[in-house]
Amino acid sequence: MKKKGANQFVLDKKEIPSDKNAYVFRNPTNNNRWYLYFYDRHAEKRHRLVLKDQNGSYPRPIPEAQDEAFVLGIAKFVELKGKSDRGEAINQLTWGELCRKFLQKEKRKISNIPHNGITKARYRLLDNQVRWLRDFMNNDKKAIHKITRTTFLSYESWRKERALELNKKIPQATTINQELSTLKRIFTEVAVAHGFLTHATVPEIPRVRLPKDKSHRREDLTEQEWLEIEKVTRLYFIKGRTRLLDKNYTIEKGKNGQYKTITEVTGQSIRGRNQLTHRILFYWGMRISMDTGIRIGSLKQLRWKNISPNTTLPKDQQKLWVSIDVPAESTKTGRSYRCAAPIAKHLEAIRKVTIFKKPNDLIFINQLRGTPFTERIWVEYWKEILVQARLADWSEDDIGRGHGCRKIKILSGKKISWYSLRHTHITMALNRGVPVPTLAANTDTSMKYIEEHYFHYRADAATEILSKGREKRLKPSRQDLSWINAVETEARSR
């Protein structure tokens, strides 16, 4: 019978016993189909959902089918009530819609401004990863809350088999892990963030175990590699210039034999001036890492109060060498240590450009915001320099080459990272004959670790090299270093 009142489109209403605000009814405006009405108290929203069985068949659109419709309505009500109680959205979201929402979100991040958003190449990489994930599911219409917990546990084996079917290269473990990482972001940043799932109901996302072979060991730099990195950074990068690459991705030279360059950062704006300053700070941070062997995590947290004169040395040597007190909270080992390092000149150069010089100020700091360098500055600057030094090329995985790409390919096949600076420092120190106990203490590592991991330098040259001292000596600073004592005095007075 027709419901009395304002809503004339509710026929044959039958309430759900456990909830007076939920009922089954027949809608004469939609071919007399049976519906469930449900009020979501958490979201304060009303929902009307057409009823059908697992085969997609609708109950008969007649009053006599009320009991049949009511059974379906009860089952649907229990499902929706459970989602509401868990804080999930009532409206269903399909797998295909989930992927599209994620890509739409990422597409809005595309920016041509360095270190702001993502590049077009990065977006294309994400789009390609999503295509593999959708291919795996092979059902864009599947509701995400019906995806089982174990669905993606077979992704690794499927991905490799699928590549063979398509006559493509079998993906490496790192590639598969990147795709699974994107999958995790899809569920977390869309499905969970918008209430379609909770963290507890997200499918289990596996991680592929990486092979433990020598190809993944961080390696030291040769002398020529380091010289090229240092030259490119000093002559071009800190001045906002980039060396041009020809169509074969080799460095272009003009008729005069000089490298062709373009200016990326002019310094004419506040933002540009800060970028140039950050590049200078990055350069000297690189030099400090090379001359101290300090870990990148500790370098990022260095403050001016951590620097003090090395009073154990003669006065003239104090103009070159300083002491660094690395606090326990910034070390990997959880213990503090003191490091002697010939970096007085480096620190002077930093103080000439930074506006943050108080004892408690970080040495490597954003000049505009007064905050630590972002991880992106450390990572992206390093990659750009390796490409400009022709030690790396922009990876084809990022689709296109040039400024702003996130992945690089080391041309030598070596595993070069910022850690390579520390690795090189230790290896060169061993080559110069620095005693292992001294080196271990100065770099906050153990003698056992050095013996196990750093005694791999060339045996054929070891005898000759070990018999020599350091051939190229650093030039002493010609500047007044009274600021070190001033910083130390101010720090003690606090």
Structure description:
This protein is 40% helix and 11% strand. It is α+β, with helices and mostly antiparallel strands. The chain folds into three domains: 11-85, no CATH class; 95-211; 223-487, hpI Integrase, Chain A. The strands form four sheets. The protein has a four-stranded antiparallel beta sheet with strand order 1-2-3-4, with helices on one face. The protein has a three-stranded antiparallel beta sheet with strand order 7-8-9. The chain is elongated and about 105 Å long.
- What is the number of domains? 3
User: What strand order characterises the main sheet?
Assistant: 1-2-3-4
Class of secondary structure makeup:
alpha+beta
- The proportion of strand residues reads 5-15%
Overall geometry? elongated
Gross CATH architecture of the largest domain: Orthogonal Bundle
Uncertain ranges: 1-6, 398-405, 457-461
What Rg, in angstroms, do the CA atoms define?
32 Å
Brief characterization of the structure:
The protein is elongated, with a radius of gyration of 32 Å.
SSE order and pairing:
Blueprint: E1 11-16, E2 19-27, E3 33-40, E4 45-50, H1 66-85, H2 95-107, H3 120-137, H4 155-165, H5 173-192, H6 223-235, E5 241-243, E6 261-263, H7 270-292, H8 296-300, E7 307-309, H9 315-318, E8 322-326, E9 337-341, H10 344-353, H11 375-388, E10 392-394, E11 408-410, H12 419-431, H13 436-443, H14 447-453, H15 459-466, H16 482-493
Antiparallel strand pairs: 1-2, 2-3, 3-4, 5-6, 7-8, 8-9, 10-11
